[in-house]
């Protein structure tokens, strides 16, 4: 994905919400895509926010919200203006995938995020036993939970950056479509 380095970005801005359980690798992914570098991160208490400028004429404001159990109770507070949900799973930690599936299903039932597209990042593909895209799709029951929206599952590795360019191209595409649909709905609403 092409990134633009400038002092001020004058294009459209999309709000991207990045969620997932603690230790899934959200912050590491965010800083790898933003700075193309690996940072030692500690569990996020609260949130991190970074703007990623793309060559597609859109800036992605990525909200990386902590995934510890106590933080999940406030995830709902970040849903309202999302143009795309990025949900990160540790695809090598099979013991926590059921918990991750439950949390994702809860989020997707929320009316604040109705019709918002979802990109699942199946992180930690560099680890032995990591599940691929098809297995993650089945495990998270994506076809059922995302039947009313665009969705995509991308295997990736936050350490090497593998799969991140493809993932954020999809995020950008989905966010642009979502923003367009919101504008059209608003225009119709204003006419009534």
TrEMBL record:
GO MF annotation terms: GTP binding; GTPase activity; metal ion binding
Question: Which keywords are on file for this protein?
Answer: GTP-binding, Magnesium, Metal-binding, Nucleotide-binding
- InterPro entries cross-referenced by the UniProt entry: P-loop_NTPase, Small_GTP-bd, Small_GTPase_ARF, Small_GTPase_ARF/SAR
Q: Where is the signal peptide?
A: none
Give residues annotated as binding Mg(2+): 27, 44
Q: PROSITE patterns from the entry?
A: ARF, RAB
State its role: GTPase that recruits MYO1E to MHC class II-containing vesicles via the effector protein ARL14EP and hence controls the movement of these vesicles along the actin cytoskeleton in dendritic cells.
For this entry, the protein name equals: ADP-ribosylation factor-like protein 14
Source organism phylogeny: Eukaryota, Metazoa, Chordata, Craniata, Vertebrata
């Amino acid at each position: 994905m092409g990134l633009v380095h400038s002092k001020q970005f004058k294009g459209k801005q999309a709000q991207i919400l990045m969620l997932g359980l603690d230790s899934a690798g959200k912050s590491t992914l965010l800083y790898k895509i933003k700075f193309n570098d690996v940072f030692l991160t500690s569990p996020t208490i609260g949130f991190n926010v970074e703007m990623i400028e793309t060559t597609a004429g859109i800036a992605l404001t990525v909200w990386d919200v902590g995934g510890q159990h106590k933080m999940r109770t406030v995830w709902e507070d970040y849903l309202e203006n999302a143009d795309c949900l990025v949900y990160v799973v540790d695809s090598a930690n099979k013991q926590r995938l059921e918990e991750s599936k439950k949390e994702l299903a809860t989020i997707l039932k929320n009316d604040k995020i109705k019709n918002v597209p979802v990109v699942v990042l199946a992180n930690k593909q560099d680890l032995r036993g990591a599940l691929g895209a098809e297995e993650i799709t089945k495990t998270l029951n994506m076809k059922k939970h995302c039947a009313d929206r665009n969705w995509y599952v991308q295997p990736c590795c936050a350490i090497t950056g593998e799969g991140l360019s493809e993932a954020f191209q999809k995020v950008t595409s989905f966010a642009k479509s979502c923003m367009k649909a919101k504008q059209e709905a608003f225009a119709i609403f204003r006419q009534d």
